[in-house]
Amino acid sequence: MCRWFDSAPGHIFILDMKKKIALITGITGQDGAYLANLLLNNNYKIFGAYRRSSSLNLWRLEELGILDSIELVSFELLEKSNIERVIKLINPDEIYNLAAQSYVGTSFENPIYTTQANALGALRILESIRMINKNIKFYQASSSEMFGEGIPQKLNEKSMFHPRSAYAVSKVFGHQITINYREAYGIFACSGILFNHESPLRGTEFVTRKITSTLAEIQAGRKKTLELGDYYAKRDWGYAVDFVEGIWRMMQNDKPKDYVLATGEAHSVKEFATIAARTMGFDLIWKGKKTNEYAIDKNTKKVLIKKNSKFYRPSDVSFLRGDAKEAKKDLGWKPKVKFKELVKIMVESDKKKSLKGKILQ
Ligand code: NDP
Ligand code: GDP
After folding, report:
1. What's residue 150's pLDDT?
2. What is the pTM of this model?
């Protein structure tokens, strides 16, 4: 059983005074789970902020075996009074704001909600810190999506922003307001501009996990084809476990500063899908021209991967590659897992999950 922390007024709790206290928003997400695991190993007391729903998704914390070690606290980015109450009661040393409407595709459908959660959500937390205790350190989850389109060079902390979705625009606001609260009020507030990072705990709507989970379902005979949008979009994909280590190091820095975390390599969706399919055991052959390109399984002659225009976005980012030199220099951070190993980790995990039953998607 996990522990539920009641943030209602009047609740009293006793803490081990030697331990640092961290409040992690978005505890039910990919990064929340891995960061909690890292902080527990560093002797933190963790309060995990989740949003209430009729079917709470705790599977990531369960998969890492850390659900029992976290105090769960009900938290909503849209509700300032709730945020204030939680911060007053816990009085954490560090707040990691990982909660967000994190899927770019959804931000085209729900741009106003995305902005409320991601942009004003970050501001609500910062404003609460300003009012309650300016010594609380704050981390904001910024994104490489903020850079947007058309820059073939490696992107760093000084590169220009040209956001291409409501998600990216909302993250630019969260990023800039974090800088503003640092400069205006002297709060230890920093942002990590993180390039895409993936893992077996990644949501199945994101392209990497969609590929590995669907291929595993095809292999198990529960699905027929994998349908994708733009095969040629390129991303700098790293491993989430490496990236949460960088997040934590930013918060232990002497002074608050923003850093890019990236691997420095860009690969296409097609490369990811091809390596994943081969690692899964399919003998893949690509056929057709750019507009109607598809892949068949050489053994069964069946179509394994095809295009579906519904997965294209009104405006997309075709290429992202980052330069994490600054993080290496100041924080000693460098990613350990490279692209091919990442694909392998995700394929092996989804293969195992599909043997046990249907993968959630
Ligand atoms: P996930 O989508 O896995 O997790 C998002 C978390 O935010 C979930 O716990 C979700 O809760 C929570 N959440 C969503 N809306 C609200 C709300 N209104 N109030 C409270 N909580 C809410 O994302 P990741 O773990 O992958 O990413 C963590 C952060 O890093 C996000 O801010 C993301 O935008 C950012 N980021 C991620 C990158 C990546 O490649 N992973 C790259 C760059 C930035 P629930 O489970 O209930 O949905
Ligand atoms: P993002 O970088 O945060 O948008 O992460 P995603 O994993 O959602 O998308 C990465 C890139 O893959 C984007 O350029 C998408 O347009 C592209 N892509 C191509 N096909 C798909 C698909 O079927 N699903 C998703 N999510 N993205 C796809």
Report:
1. 64
2. 0.96
